[in-house]
Design brief:
The chain is 27% helix and 21% strand. By secondary structure, it is an alpha+beta fold. Residues 9-82 form the MIP18 family-like domain.
Length: 105
């Protein structure tokens, strides 16, 4: 019987860096859209995330893209994506690396 690889938060975050917000051109992790991430013992993954604005026209696309990327990780059984706007996203959540690229800092 083969062992399933241990799924880590780091693995999931690396995979989610492949999900790019088409309007901004930055991935959901570095944008700070991922609020919470849990890898459960049964190899399911829970993500609580937000959008840059409540009326974001790409909300459904981004949620599906995040779920799809998580499900591509070997051993992941299921993904639950919860959308929240509490607290509201602000540009303060963008990673330092991306702020430098954008000239914010």
């Amino acid at each position: 019987m083969s062992e399933n690889p241990k799924i880590t938060k780091e693995m999931v975050l690396e995979k989610l860096k492949e999900v790019i917000d088409p309007e901004i051109g930055i991935d959901v992790v570095n944008l700070g859209l991922i609020y919470e991430l849990k890898v459960n013992p049964d190899n399911t993954v829970y993500v609580k995330m937000t959008m840059t604005t409540p009326g974001c026209p790409l909300t459904m696309w981004l949620l599906q893209a995040v779920e799809q990327k998580i499900l591509e990780i070997p051993g992941v059984k299921d993904a639950e994506i919860e959308l929240t706007f509490d607290p509201p996203w602000t540009p303060d959540r963008i990673s330092e690396e991306v702020k430098k690229k954008l000239g914010i800092i």
